Amino acid sequence: MGVVLAFAAAAALFVGATSVPAVGDEAELVDAPVISDTEIINDTPAAGDVDDTPAPIVVDDTPAPIVVDDITEDDISPEVDPLDPEGLEALDEFGELEAGLGLDLGLAPMGAGPDGAGLVPPYVYWTATDESGELVGGATFQLQGPASGRSSWGSTVVVEDNTGQAGYVGRDMDPDPGEFAVTEFAIHEISDTNRYRVRMTQASEGYGVSDSGYRTIPGQGIQPASGAWIGGTYNFGNFEMSGGPRTLSCTPGTFYSVSSNGTLVEVVDGVRKTIGQWAGINGAANSVAISQGGNVVYAIDRNSNNAGNVNRILRYTPSTGVFEGLSGTQHSTSATALVAGAVDLSTGAFLYGGFSNNGARFQIYRYSDGGTPEYLGYFATGSTGTANGDMAFDAAGNLYVVRSGNTTNIYTVTAENLAAAAGGVIPATSTHSARLTGLSNVNGAAFDADGSIYLGNSTTVRQFDPTNWAYPSTFTSNLTDSTDLASCSSPATLTVTKNVIGRA
Q1: pLDDT tens digits, one per residue of 9-63
Q2: Cα–Cα distance measured from residue 75 to residue 53, given in angstroms and rounded to the nearest whole number
Q3: 167: left (phi over 0), alpha (psi -120 to 50) or beta
Q4: Which domains, ranges and CATH numbers included, belong to the chain?
Q5: 141, 174, 320, 338: which sits with the fewest CB atoms below 10 Å from its CB?
Q6: Most distant CA pair in the chain: distance in Å?
């Protein structure tokens, strides 16, 4: 009878458990109680009791089905620790634990510490996610320590994400994508009496580094603050990456900025948010442009020695989150510096350009996916002196170029004149010059759906009324090394702007 009860008890563990985590799940471990040896054999009636024990059961070679409905976890004494080797051995003898019950008895999930077979404190750990909080694998971090003074951090180790890939030999002991745990450096083990610091150096493919600064275990000098380490572990928290698959906003009050290092930023009603970054910028990113509906973003990687030459054309596809440099697009131009970019809403072609001849001419180039860059021609500005600016299309295919130096102008190239461009002079008209107040060193422009225009420099963007160049508001003063602006509100904006220009 003892054998039958033990067999049933092992089965009850499986039926009575309310949740059985699968391999890799982040779930609480199930306390799997087992019957003690004392309970198995202690079934002899006390003196004076009526012995109603049924006749011994004869078990043949074919075991009968086991009925476990009347047996619950409360009927079984939890006297054996399920993580104790002897307890596991006892369970496995009757229930073939690993194959039959399929319980996941790995280490505690990230809520209480990271996963990883054989991971024992002390260790430091952290996570990497997208903007929605989903774990994303493939990021790289730099871990330093232990602190040996006010500014010395001992050794440095690069921590690449262990995503469970075959042949991984790095320092991350947690095999789950986006989860990191480090127990040792190359020359010493992590100690909970020391201080360490970590920072993200490279985001996962298609994402950007939102914060490249160090996170540091609090304390003074080499001594961690009291209570900083918990149970021999320290949690650096979550590192949220920017970018990834997304949809760009073309709503009023939204525009985008690119910085010289290739970082693309979204600004909505004055609040900035990093989208991602083009890697490997060899000079400076500029001439950012966004297609209709925000489906594609283009920019230029300008040559560091000659801002009028193109190292490569850059492309970002929001639906896939991929930032890339396009091969075969390196070329020289006649511009002194490339400063402007726009996407033709009817063809999807990327147009870009810049001023030359001391600002007296504006040179225009065009690139279509899969093709080669081509020169369209130039128009005369009627002005001289240092100039910056930007350009955009309206729904009818007319091109508008904003020039901003000591004064500001808007130039119009009609769709017909642009289509006829063959490498020479392109006819254009201009508004009257206007002097801006409250903003200097303008290097970017973007149009909004209400007919206004955003003009910005490296740090500040203000919204102007192009009929009189008054500015009603400052949208943001929180940009970092911005080189150009763009939006995908062009159709409504430039139809209005075109009418304004027509009255000028």
Answers
A1: 444 443 444 444 444 444 343 344 444 333 333 444 444 444 555 555 554 555 5
A2: 20
A3: left
A4: 2-101 (no CATH), 123-243 (2.60.40.10), 254-503 (2.120.10.30)
A5: 320
A6: 120
Tokens describing residue 404: 């901003």
Average per-residue pLDDT in the chain?
78
Q: In Å, how far are 82, 342, 415 from 397, measured between CA atoms?
A: 72, 11, 5
**In sequence order, what are the residues at sequence separation of 6 or more whose Cβ sits closer than 8 angstroms to the Cβ of residue 366?**
349, 350, 351, 352, 373, 374, 376
Q: Quick one: pLDDT at residue 480?
A: 85
When pLDDT is averaged across residues 443-468 and rounded to a whole number, the result is: 83
H or E element: which one contains 284? strand 284-290
Q: How far apart are CA 234 and CA 149, in angstroms?
A: 20
Residues 337-353: tens digit of each pLDDT: 999 999 998 899 999 99
Tokens of residue 378, six digits: 């130039």
pLDDT for 87: 42
Yes or no: say if 248 and 297 are a contact pair by the CB < 8 Å rule.
yes
Tokens at 198, concatenated: 């970590």
Backbone angles phi, psi at 39, to 5 degrees: -65, -30
Higher pLDDT, 138 or 496: 138
The amino acid present at 126, given as its one-letter code, is W
Mean pLDDT of 403-420: 88
- Paired tokens of 254: 């939204």
The string of pLDDT tens digits covering residues 265-302 is 999 988 888 888 898 999 999 999 999 889 999 999 99
**Is the Cβ–Cβ distance between 452 and 466 less than 8 Å?**
yes
Dihedrals φ, ψ of 417, to 5°? -70, -35
In one-letter notation, the amino acid at residue 372 is T
DSSP 230: B
DSSP character at residue 251 = S
pLDDT of residue 274: 86
Print burial letters for 302-311: b (CB count within 10 Å at least 16), e (below 16): bbeeebbbbb
What backbone torsions phi and psi does residue 426 show, to the nearest 5 degrees? -115, 120
Strand partners, 301: 285, 312
